[in-house]
Amino acid sequence: MKNVVGIGLLILMLVSTWHFLLNGVDGGLIFYSSLILTIFLVIIGFNIFLENRDPIQTITWLVIFCAFPFIGFIFYFLFGRNFRKDRIFRKKYFLDKQTFVKISGEAGYNERIMEMGEHPQQLITLANRLGNSPVSFTTETRVLRNGEETFSNIIEELKKARHHIHLEYYIVRDDRIGGLLKDILIQKVKEGVKVRFLYDAVGSWKLARSYIDELKNAGAEMVAFGPLHLPLLNNKFNFRNHRKIIVIDGSVGFIGGLNIGDEYLGQGQKFGSWRDTHLIIKGEAVRTLQLIFLQDWYYSTNNSFLSDEYLMTGMPNHHGYGGVQLIGGGPDSEWTIIKSIFFKMITSAEKSVWIASPYFVPDDNILQALKVAALSGLDVRLLVPKNPDKRIVFHASRTYFPELLASGVRIFQYNEGFMHSKIIIVDDQMASIGTTNIDMRSFHLNFEVNAFLYRTESAQQLVNDYMEDIKVSKEVKIDEFSKRNFGLKLLESTCRLLSPLL
């Protein structure tokens, strides 16, 4: 019954419109429309029940259908359908473990893992098994603290490109920085560089057609991920590509929280200052980032480029950087890969867990792990924005504060503009940086990518940056927070009711 209800909705709207044009609104139309809507809601509710979703999510949907039938009906088609993801994304299994098998068999690989110690070994092993991704000990990384650092480095590396440039973004803006990058890409195409650009159809829905046409006319390949024609009938609408990836000549890569737009340079009218974190990667681990891009490109275009031309094997043999592991997660995976690694990071921490997330709507597993870690005496900190970007998520996240504060978690609200960094740091030695938020959408619905760092200089830089962010943040105190007025508490609780659907 994949599209039966959607087709029924379309027929209902067409019949209602036709009837309205001929006869205007009358009691009969209202009665029959309400009757048909009720029948469809019963069918949807029964279907959700048979899907064996999380009980809280199931009850939430049923309550919404009863309280707000028409709104719930539309909301379900946009965000609630839970078709079998292995069927929808079957093609994305095409590119498998080839890179992992090749690298894991290299001389000295297992010995280097053993040298990392028991705690990193467990995380590396888990990531290997879930994400089929090797850890590299010959990769250089550097943290980019804001939009200015990030885009200046991106521009510098793009201008050096000689063979290919691969870009994959959730949001692309046709503004000053977007136009500058477009001009550079067009120039590189003229120089003979192959440019492939994958953008998410929903995240970049405001992107001007002229922007796309200019790149295509110049010879670049620009493709929408998950294009939408009839959103209410499209079973892929809810699964979005939230990744931010650049790969240049197979040897330099970028990932992190920054999309392409002036707002990420702190030039947006709403927030002004924009605090974000990105990562530049050079060397062996870029091959894994390249593979993630090629998987997404194949899914979107049916074109595969799995060859040494794009997956370089002769990387420089540098040591002393620590371990770097690139992990892609998404609805095409059997496991909730990145969430599982986050959970393991938290539960295996020995001294501290520091988290920065702009959108904090944890599921029960992550929430319980954080509380138990704090109750065990660990230094658990959560850094979130003070000012909302997405109001429903913002208010929903605040309902988790009381139980976290009661367990000993320290919560800080970032005061200088908007904080968009997505960071986890454990024991000052292991860290995650990437596109994944601590929320339901990132864990279960979006395609995400994160870099996991084991005893690298970049991990230490993230520690230092986190401490600097704390200095310009205000700590939330439980006695002060509990004095919120009733209306605000009611709003937050209502938003939390919707959180399983976000």
Give a description of the structure.
By secondary structure, the protein is α/β, with parallel strands linked by helices. The protein has helices spanning 4-23, 27-50, 55-67, 69-80, 85-88, 98-104, 109-115, 118-131, 147-160, 176-190, 209-218, 286-301, 337-347, 364-375, 391-398, 401-407, 440-444, 457-471, 478-481, 486-498; strands at residues 139-144, 164-169, 194-200, 221-225, 245-248, 252-256, 274-275, 278-283, 323-329, 352-356, 360-361, 379-385, 410-414, 418-419, 423-426, 430-434, 438-439, 448-454, 473-476. Strand 3, helix 11 and strand 4 form a beta-alpha-beta unit. The protein is globular and about 60 Å long. The relative contact order is 0.12. Residues 83-88 and 90-105 have low confidence and may be disordered.
Key features?
502 residues; alpha/beta; 8-stranded mixed β-sheet; 7-stranded mixed β-sheet; 20 helices
Helix content: 40-55%
What is the alpha-carbon Rg in Å?
Answer: 24 Å
Strand order in the largest sheet:
9-18-16-15-10-12-13-19
- What gross morphology would you assign? globular
- Helix/strand/pairing category: alpha/beta
User: Are there runs of 5+ residues with pLDDT below 50, and where?
Assistant: 83-88, 90-105
Number of strands: 19
